[in-house]
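Researcher: Structure for this, please.
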Amino acid sequence: MIPLYVTNGSAYVWNSEDWYTLRVKYRICGALIGSLPSFPRQNDFQGLPVSLMTEEATLLVNEGICELISITDLNVKPSDDLKQQIDDCENRITLEQTEALKKRKIEQLSQKIDIIVAGKKQKLLSKGISDVDLDKNILLQEEINKIPNIAPGHLLVHLPTQHHLKCNEKKILSTDVLDPSLRTEKGKIKYAVFNDLWKNGYYLTNGSKFGSDFLVYQGDPVKFHATYMVKCTSVATKFRPANLVAFGRLSVAVNKLAILAYFNNTGAIEYQTLQWHDSVVR
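Model: Predicted structure, token format:
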């Protein structure tokens, strides 16, 4: 199963392949919240980890796709031994890159040694020295000795997609450790609506920026705009007319359909669409 790492009641995906699988195979989008190492001073494009809504994480666990994991020593100050392991790992990577670069340079010099010898002879001839026997092997070794050590600033930076050291303890958790909002009346209807729409083939993301609980997409959000704005409520909820009108007008302004989702009197999920017609919400 795909591991979801829990910190402070939220579930995260740290592995890029796991994130790709969840998005492509299971239609779970989450939200990228990490800084891109190449472009750290911007907020337009984010990287790993992926933060999952409580509804997303709960559904994945209930469907047997993922498991919630807590690494008990993740936030513990690293020991001297652990620091030494990290230093050894970085030194090994530096040495491997240096050796790989030197090997490549030697291969290039070996392929061009005849050109180098010809150039040396031409230079000596220009100085009036003609009786010179140049040894290719000696000349090649001289050129190899001139290869400089690679500067730290020119090294490739290793960007791991998961922890490269073996963690001491992993604890399997239940969904009770997630945000407790699912245990409230509003949380129950939100999860039921999320589960119902997901099983009907839709993609869902957080809808807070549009004043709703979920944005619902016909396909992957990178290719499609959201079609619906879903607000979860209950039959007993009373709306102020101004709030209802505001929700309907906002949906029209962003070219989406406003939907109210709730449990009806039989306990089934029911959806009510707000349609803007002749300046009246119906």
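Researcher: Any notable elements?
Model: The longest strand covers residues 226-232. The mean pLDDT is 87.
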